[in-house]
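Objective 1b: paired records.
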Amino acid sequence: MLVKFDSNVAGEMLMFADVARRLLTVAGKECTARGVITREQIPEIVARLRQAANADRAAHAPADGDDDNSNVVSLGQRAQPFIELLELTARESEGFVLWEAAKDFGD
C-alpha cells in the first residue's frame, strides 16, 4: 500500500506504508488513513527524525572491513526526503502536510 504526503508548499511524495509507518511513529503520529502535520509540529518532528536516523546509523555501523550492510537502506536515507519536505513546508506561515492512504496502516 502507498501513502501520499501532500505539502501545500512543497508538493507531494509517495511512500510505501511500511516506511511511512516507521517515520510517522518516530514523529509521534498515528498511522491512520488520513492525517496532518501542522507547521507548528514540524520542528519537533524533524528533530525526532534526525535523532532516530543518527541512532539507527550508529546501531548499524559496519565493523572494520565489514560490508554486509552496504545494500541496506537506512532510516536516515529514508527520512531525508521527508525531512526536506517538512523543512520546505515550515518556511511558509500557513504550511502543512497532509497524508492519505487507502486505510489505516498502523501495526
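Objective 1b, second protein:
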Amino acid sequence: MTGIKVKVLSGRTLRQGVGKEAGKNSERYRTSVSICEMNSEDITSLSIKAGENVKVTSAHGSVVLKSVSSNQLTKPGMIFIPYGLYANQLFNETTGGSGMPTFKGEPAVVESAIEEPVKTLEELITEI
C-alpha cells in the first residue's frame, strides 16, 4: 500500500475544548485529539473507510491516528489534526522566535494503518 502526499494543518477544535474540560487524561480528550480529518476522496484513495487508522509521517516524525471524513476539507491533499501531543509528532519544534511552531502546511504522507493501534497519550509521552 502506498501513501498519499498531503499538507498538515493543525489548530484548536470545539471537541478538543470540551474534552479538555473532562481532563487531559480523559478518554474524551484523547479521542478528540487523536484524529486525522481528511477529505473523503483521500480516504477512498487509501482504500479505507472513515474511522479506520492511518499513519501520518512527516520529516519530523510519525503518528497513527483515527481517520475522520471532513466536509471542511473541500479539496484532497490537506489533512487537519487538532493541536496536541499527536500533532506535535509531525511538526518542527523551532519557532523562529515566536514561541509557537507554525502548525500549518507541513508536508507529510498518509497511509493506511488498519493493523496499527492509536497510542494513548501515556504511551506517546513514554516514547518521548
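The chain has a mean pLDDT of 90. The first strand starts at residue 4 and ends at 11.
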